[in-house]
Design goal:
The chain has helices at residues 17-33, 48-54, 60-65, 84-93, 139-155, 174-186, 192-200, 202-205, 211-216, 229-244, 289-292, 307-316, 336-351, 365-375, 385-389, 411-419; strands at residues 38-39, 45-47, 68-70, 76-79, 104-113, 125-134, 161-167, 250-251, 263-271, 279-285, 300-306, 329-333, 356-358, 379-383, 392-397, 403-407. It is α+β, with helices and mostly antiparallel strands and 420 residues long. The longest helix is centred in the first third of the chain and has 17 residues, at 17-33. The structure holds adenosine-5'-triphosphate and magnesium ion.
Length: 420
């Protein structure tokens, strides 16, 4: 142990567990990759102002959770707390929306930072894989994203998750609802902070997690009862498309994203084995966001799935991913000459695409074989001076335990055909 520890609210990803983490990332990305989404990577920090506008001045993320800093040059920056604002900023900056093939479909994967109260499933540094489809208003696009997230979770073997779905309406119908909700909320017994929220961001009050607040919200007006014809038709079409795909969801009329530029479709993936931090991912339409950050009108939809919580969800369901061993061949040299010869063999194997590793540090047979076992390699190649004098190495099948002498100059091809 050194003098230092990982900062509060963070943890290190360490082998062998890190392999599952990587596999989760890849499993979430795979359906996106094969559905026309291109990879995008943006900086780990952006101007504070981008998030203030793109996430929302009145959100917890912006008011409490952002890591902000002033550079030596005087710029106000923030470590990114989420992906959507950055991705949209980058797409606009590169004029992707002007290239004539809307929607622009992008996926990303990376680290995000929020100054939160750390607890299980809630960290100050966490990992998301996300997708954004920019510049099209089409219920099939909303449905596509929900179906792809479902596919990703199922490919990991997850079953105990639920998809909650709602519509937030649009410029037409939301203001009417907003007023009705404000009238209702003003009649409740709420603390001062929450009362202030009624004016700035009343929908967000519906998302309050406190029991005493939730109890009072039982009779609150619901957006579904206020949707205009266009929003209702749009939402019905999204639901019909998801249902036709065999994806099960639940209507949750209380599900909100509390900002004006979030519109229509909104959804959350929750896992029932995670306790308080049950949301594994969420997303929805944000038709007004582009304009909020100075771009043209670009109706868009996206989601972000949390990798950390998805890994916890796998644990909660008792799922161990079946990952192929990283190493196929492990070489154990006994003596100086064998070290040189087998090192060359390992190099050749690697160049020919066989995953191979080597016993370093001149260790004895017994301890080297332990490493060979731990590596998960299917074959071990052992050679000592006597073997080399005969021009052979010992090839051991770690599964059957059988061992045979193989000519040194034939061992690479032999291993390649055995592993093919
Ligand atoms: P919560 O309600 O749990 O705070 P959120 O609404 O802030 O979640 P989003 O901003 O929608 O979360 O982020 C999408 C996903 O990213 C979440 O569903 C979750 O899996 C993950 N996530 C968000 N914040 C954290 C965090 N602090 N630690 C770990 N994962 C997180
Ligand atoms: Mg949060």
């Amino acid at each position: 142990m050194s003098t230092f520890k990982a900062p509060k609210g963070t943890y290190d990803l360490i082998p062998p567990q890190s392999a599952a983490f990587l596999a989760v990332r890849e499993a979430i990305a795979a359906p996106l990759r094969s559905s026309g989404y291109g990879y995008i990577e943006t900086p780990g920090f952006e101007s504070v102002e981008l998030f203030a506008r793109g996430v929302g001045e009145s959100t917890d993320i912006v008011t409490k959770e952002m890591y902000t800093l002033t550079t030596k040059g005087g710029s106000e920056l923030a470590l990114r707390p989420e992906g959507t604002a950055s991705v949209l900023r980058a797409a606009l900056e590169a004029n992707l929306h002007k290239l004539g093939n809307l929607p622009v479909k992008l996926w990303y994967s990376g680290s995000y930072y929020r100054y939160e109260r750390p607890q299980k499933g809630r960290y100050r540094h966490f990992s998301q894989v996300g997708a954004e489809a920019i510049g099209a208003e089409d219920p099939a696009l909303d449905a596509e994203l929900i179906i792809l997230a479902d596919q990703a979770y199922r490919s990991l073997g997850l079953r105990n998750f639920r998809i909650l779905l709602n519509s937030l309406g649009d410029k037409e119908c939301r203001p009417v609802y907003r007023t009705a909700l404000q009238d209702f909320l003003r009649g409740l017994d709420l603390d001062e902070d929450t009362r202030r929220r009624i004016d700035i961001n009343p929908l967000r009050v519906l998302d309050d997690k406190r029991d005493d607040v939730q109890k009072q919200l039982v009779g609150a007006p619901l957006l579904v009862d206020y949707l205009c014809d266009a929003c209702r038709a749009y939402h019905d079409e999204v639901r019909a498309l998801i249902t036709a795909a065999g994806v099960v969801y639940e209507d949750d009329p209380r599900l909100v994203r509390g900002l004006d530029y979030y519109t229509r479709t909104t959804f959350e993936f929750v896992h029932d084995g995670l306790g308080a931090q049950s949301a594994v991912g969420g997303g929805g339409r944000y038709d007004g966001l582009s304009e909020m950050i100075g771009g043209p009108s670009l109706p868009s939809v996206g989601w972000a799935l949390g990798v950390d919580r998805t890994v916890l969800a796998l644990e909660a369901e008792g799922i161990t991913l079946e990952l192929p061993p990283a190493t196929s061949v492990f070489a154990v040299p006994l003596g100086e000459e064998a070290r040189r010869v087998l090192f060359a063999t390992v190099t050749e194997l690697r160049r020919k695409g066989v995953a191979a590793d080597f016993s370093y540090g001149g260790r004895g047979l017994k301890s080297a074989m332990k490493s060979a076992n731990r590596s998960g390699a299917r074959y071990t190649v052992v050679a000592g001076e006597r073997d080399l004098a005969e021009g052979v190495v010992q090839l051991k099948d770690m599964e059957s335990g059988e061992q045979e002498a193989v000519a040194l100059d034939a061992v690479v091809d032999k291993l390649r055909s055995l592993l093919a």
